[in-house]
Amino acid sequence: MPMLGLGTWENDDPAQCTESVRTALEAGYRHVDTAQIYENEAAVGEGIAAADVPREDVFLATKVWIDSLAPADVEETTRESLDRLGVDSVDLLYVHWPARTYDPEATLAAFADLQDAGLIDRIGISNFEPEQVATAQDVLGGDVFANQVELHPLLPQPELREACADHGVEVVAYSPLARGAVFDVPELTEIAEAHGVSEAQVSLAWLREKGVTAIPKATSEAHIRDNAASLDVSLTDEEVQTIDDLDRRDRRVDPDFGPWN
Ligand code: NAP
């Protein structure tokens, strides 16, 4: 899984979304993240088709919404996602939240069936807490590939990262720029200025230091390229420590059905 991907939540003007995906792929991105609930799968698929990059070089992930986690709905809505995306299979299919119609045994068995049928290459979970990661990994006999969770310098989630490592589950950081809040953290600005880069790049470089894949959402070519340039930023141990020591906390995605509520 490429460690930098393009997020697409709220990139919901179809022409703009297609253009952002095409631009990102042609700028070197090889990982795109969408979801049924974003209602932009068709536009994402068009961006992939329009880019001068073969489909097989792109790591494409989508997510099944919480209303559709009963087995028959998992299969039906995933087939619909593939149709909208215009692909035969996705590289990663996530359970979007462990909520509403989620049932560990029934839901995950349906995901395993999709994998056996060749419609999805890997099974992911999203917004799972440590005990839920353990249960999912147990139910699937070790086949959970990744847990996508909110993660950035203002929500570092060390216990959750450790639990994922213990269970052999990759971590994918969503809202890796804290939806814009990283630009207002003086310590990040100071490190950014020392490197002549943006606070976004510092946050993404810090996540990479932690072994975490990040999927910043960016619409414009300028933001897409700025985030890609984070791959060239190396933080010193002292800078990583400064970010680890931040004590401000800010969870940006916090619906009532979040398992921590
Ligand atoms: P984010 O990536 O932390 O922040 C996106 C915001 O930062 C946008 O307003 C974007 O503006 C701006 N931005 C991006 N790059 C920038 C740069 N270099 N300089 C200045 N501003 C920049 O927030 P997010 O969209 O919440 O999270 C990223 C992705 O994670 C989502 O798009 C989605 O794919 C995924 N996600 C998943 C879940 C889940 O439950 N699994 C929840 C939330 C998000 P522009 O759009 O104008 O470029």
- Low-confidence parts: none
Q: Which descriptor suits the 3D outline?
A: globular
CATH 4th-level superfamily: NADP-dependent oxidoreductase domain
The level of helicity is 40-55%
> CATH fold name, please?
TIM Barrel
- For the record, the CATH class is Alpha Beta
**Please, how many helices?**
10
Radius of gyration from the CA trace?
18 Å
Attached small molecules: NADP nicotinamide-adenine-dinucleotide phosphate
N- and C-termini, Cα separation:
30 Å
Count of strand segments: 8
What does the main sheet amount to?
8 strands, parallel
How is the largest sheet built, in terms of strand order?
A: 1-2-3-4-5-6-7-8
Whole-number total of structural domains: 1
**Arithmetic mean pLDDT:** 98
Word description of this protein:
The chain has one domain (6-244): TIM Barrel. It is 41% helix and 13% strand. The protein has ten helices and eight strands. Strands 1-2-3-4-5-6-7-8 form an eight-stranded parallel beta sheet. α1 packs across α2 (41-50), α2 (41-50) runs parallel beside α3 (71-85) and α7 packs across α8. The model has no long low-confidence stretch (mean pLDDT 98). Bound molecules: NADP nicotinamide-adenine-dinucleotide phosphate. Residues 7-9, 33, 96, 126-127, 148, 174-180, 198, 200, 215-220, 223, 226-227, 253 line the site of NADP nicotinamide-adenine-dinucleotide phosphate.
